[in-house]
């Protein structure tokens, strides 16, 4: 079944897929989902090949020691990773907190473009991805009564270990806490099959 039969005006929302987020010296070597980059690249290629919108969110830290601070390393850390580099015409917003809806125009971009279905990918599952999805659901940036839906693409998001918990456990629990309450849960291959 084609995407038009299942979803209304879908878009891919990519959160914090930046060089600084992958900084192993700062954040550590342990990360969930080794297929994160390849799945993200597949989604980007799929959406672009079908003329579907891709929205990019980057993080600009206010912490002077963070690799995500614009002044560190000539701004190398805030650059998007190759798999998620925006193409001309694709909206890009920058945030300095966990939610992509605080201090940005993202909600306006979504509403102005008539987007009704958001597929969310990026880093990190338990922090900025989760916070953005929760807030997006609470704000009803895609209105459920109009068929609006938010999905987390669980194999196109990833995170680090946290508080003594390994990265895969943190990732799994974070996805489980979003499921049905704030978002549907899908995998990359399902999105690509649906949006043909």
From TrEMBL:
InterPro entries linked: Isochorismatase-like_dom, Isochorismatase-like_hydrls, Isochorismatase-like_sf
Pfam families: Isochorismatase (PF00857)
Gene3D superfamilies linked to this entry: Isochorismatase-like (3.40.50.850)
Every Isochorismatase-like domain range: 11-188
Annotated GO MF terms: hydrolase activity
SUPFAM superfamilies xrefs: Isochorismatase-like hydrolases
Keywords from the named record: Hydrolase
Protein family per UniProt: Belongs to the isochorismatase family.
Designated name of the protein: Isochorismatase hydrolase
Native source species: Lentinus tigrinus ALCF2SS1-6
